[in-house]
Design a protein that fits this description.
Length: 87
């Protein structure tokens, strides 16, 4: 049988471990929510960019490339780069 002070130490150690795990879990939930919101924002801009790209493609008969870097969305044509918007 363990002495009472050893049980108390073990209990305190487990409480600290649980607090750390809880903090990490809450941080991961917050990061997942931010990722979900950022993904929704990028997807909405992607739809706008694709529509704009199709319009410019039809107008200029040129190939284009859509890319997302950091917080900017770019449509790249062979001769120009249009910055559509900051997210």
């Amino acid at each position: 049988m363990k002495p009472l002070h050893k049980v108390q130490e073990d209990t305190e150690s487990l409480k600290q471990m649980l607090a750390g795990l809880t903090s990490g879990f809450q941080r991961n939930v917050a990061l997942a929510d931010k990722l979900k919101a950022d993904t929704a924002k990028v997807m909405s801009w992607f739809c706008i960019v694709m529509a704009l790209g199709e319009s410019l493609f039809a107008q200029y008969k040129a190939s284009y490339h859509v890319s997302v870097h950091s917080t900017k969305v770019y449509i790249v044509f062979p001769v120009s780069i249009f910055i559509v918007s900051s997210l």
